[in-house]
Every structure is written in structure tokens, then in C-alpha cells.
Amino acid sequence: MLYCEKCKVHLTGSAQRCPLCQGKLSGKSEEDSYPRLSDRRKPYWLAMRLAGLITVIVLVVCMAVDFSFPEGGRWSFLAAAGLASLWLVIGVAVRKGKNPMKSIVWLLGVVSVLAFVWDWRIGFAGWSVNYVLPILIPCMQAAVLIVAWILRLRPSDYLLYLTICVFAGFLPLVLLLCGALRVIYPSVICVSVSAVLLAAMILFRGAALKDEIVRRMHV
After folding, report:
1. What is the pLDDT along the chain (219 residues), one digit of tens a residue?
2. What is the pTM of this model?
3. Is the four-CA dihedral 65, 68, 69, 73 of positive or negative sign?
4. Strand (E) positions, 27-170?
């Protein structure tokens, strides 16, 4: 089989040069001159299918135990809803994985909504707005900055997404002013961090932020 050192692909057929880069080939010629590219999705899809199978097994076991001992209540439905929520988060992360910044913003929204729905469905103890939201938002703000630093992204690649996370950080302030919070300290920290980040963005990246908003809004 022919092999191109530059493109790292194997070829069949009797071609003299690589159809991708026109470079010289090594090896013996065979039929068919199209390159054989490795299937990079196979390990990924195998892991997803194994995770799906494990999820089904866990769900079946939970339902079997639940229906075998009915005096414990139908907790298997909560287990099913929990697994569905987990897969929703994984699906969003995988779906938006090509753009890490967009993935972070989507995860912020999805996890916040899921936390509120779960809190509401089990009696609304308030943990979703008192703890989850004001802790999740600074974590996502930090995630944007860390990923941007690791990937060496340009300001135009992350500023808009950081701005969304920063303005989301003022939502606990609205809840605090409305008297919807029982525990104020996480929300105070969240709002304080968001205010500092907003000031830093305006002072150090104000021009780049303005250009990005103009570009995104087409104004």
C-alpha cells in the first residue's frame, strides 16, 4: 500500500503522487487511488455507546429494585429524571464542544434551569437560587478566563461570552433586592466578583469589547 509521509495517509491504486499534496509516495501500489483516512470518531462513539449502555443498566436496576419493594416509594422515576438531566448536560457539552466559549455559556444556562426545575419539583427549598446559581456563575466566569488563557484566544474570541457570564452574575442581585433569597453571602460574593470583572473588562479591554459588540450586532 502506498503511503504519504507528509499527509500521513495510506493510499491504494497506482498513483505516482499523493492526491492531497502532490508529494512523492512510498510503498507498493494497489488498486483504488483514494486515501484511507482513519476513523477518528470510532473511539468517541464507542465511549458514548458504553456510557449509554451503563445508563440503561443503572436505570433498569433502579426500576427493578423500586418495583420489587414498593413501600419505598417510586424513587426510580427521580433516578430516571436525574439520568436524563445528566445526559442533557453531556449532550450540550458535546454538541457545543467545538466552541469551548459557547459551550460554557450554554452549560451555565442549562445547569441553572435544571437546578431550578429540580428545586421546584421537590418542594422548592431554595438551594437553586441560594447556592447553585451564585456559585455556578463565578465558576463559569473563571472557566472562560482559564480556557481563553490555555488556548491563547484573542479577545474577540472570548470577550462576548465573558460579558454574558458577567451580566448573568448580577441576577442574584435582582433576587436579593426582591427578597427571594434566604442566604445572601454566596450572592453577595457573586455580584462582587461580577462587578470587579466588568470594571476590568471596561478598563483593559473596553475598545476590543466595543468592537466585538458592534461586529456581532452588525451596527
Report:
1. 788 888 888 777 777 788 778 778 887 765 544 555 555 555 667 888 899 999 999 999 999 998 888 776 778 898 999 999 999 999 998 888 788 999 999 999 999 999 999 999 888 999 999 999 999 999 999 999 999 999 999 888 899 999 999 999 999 999 999 999 999 999 999 999 999 999 999 999 888 888 887 877 765
2. 0.74
3. positive
4. 35-36
107's CB contacts (< 8 A; 6+ apart) are 89, 92, 93, 140
User: Facing residues of 26 across strands?
Assistant: 3
Q: What nine digits make up the cell of 25?
A: 509516495
How far apart CA 108 and CA 126 sit, in angstroms, is: 18
For residue 5, give the amino acid letter: E
Nearest to 3 by CA among 83, 12, 140: 12
Which cell is 95 given?
454538541
**What cell was used for 50?**
458504553
The neighbour count for residue 35, using CB atoms within 10 Å, is 19
| Calpha distance 193→209 (Å, rounded) | 19
